[in-house]
Sequence to fold (269 residues):
Amino acid sequence: MANKILYICQEITPYLPETENSTLCRTLTQAMQERGNEIRSFMPRYGCINERRHQLHEVIRLSGMNLIIDDNDHQLIIKVASIPSARVQIYFIDNDDYFARKAVLVDPETGDGFADNDERAIFFARGVLETVKKLRWAPTVVHCHGWFSAVAPVYLKRIFSDDPIFRDVKVVVSLYGDEIPGKLDPEFATKIASEGVTDKNLEILKDPSYENLCRFVLDYADGVVLASDKISPEILQVVRESGKPTLEYQSPEEADFFDNYNRFYDEIQ
Fold:
């Protein structure tokens, strides 16, 4: 059956360099659209993205909302661009406080993750879901790619679970070998709780390591995709222990690669 698929992506090429994550997000959206699914794709508008070259422009009717993260107001700016060769439109979540810096998730001077990556991830998740509500577009599947999208599943299952736009949605989480350097801010759990999430699972984020973040996000997933052959044995064990329906790793070169994704979306309905 045809699905309405919301892709929440940490990165997408050609806006960022080619990686397993960015390349799959680029090809998967096009392949699913070509198979008759309706698609919306979102990523952060990192400051290193060349807006002029990629012809990003602000969508005034969707911008202007303020999101409160850790008691501070942050303006939500929505931009959009198209990948002409794919006939795919990409929405960008932007904010000067979180995304103006000329880097993605790691400080190039220190090699460490940015200290506010937890708040950036919260803002990204909230920004995507609030924008989808404004679009009045109800997805049947939300597919989250990369650890930076990890806040979206808990919001979908807890904060937005009664919203008509998201009430019946199924959540798929793709895991990659993109482990966080170090840990996220120890107040990460408190900040999510202040958004209105009351959940005992937040306890695990009091030690916000990559492994614990994976454990946390899997609690809210309806299906898991192993999107890399570089996932650590520890994370693979977490996936096995979760008992969630899993699409095993497969090479993008396989003939039925995209058809397997299409079938997986149907299977978890």
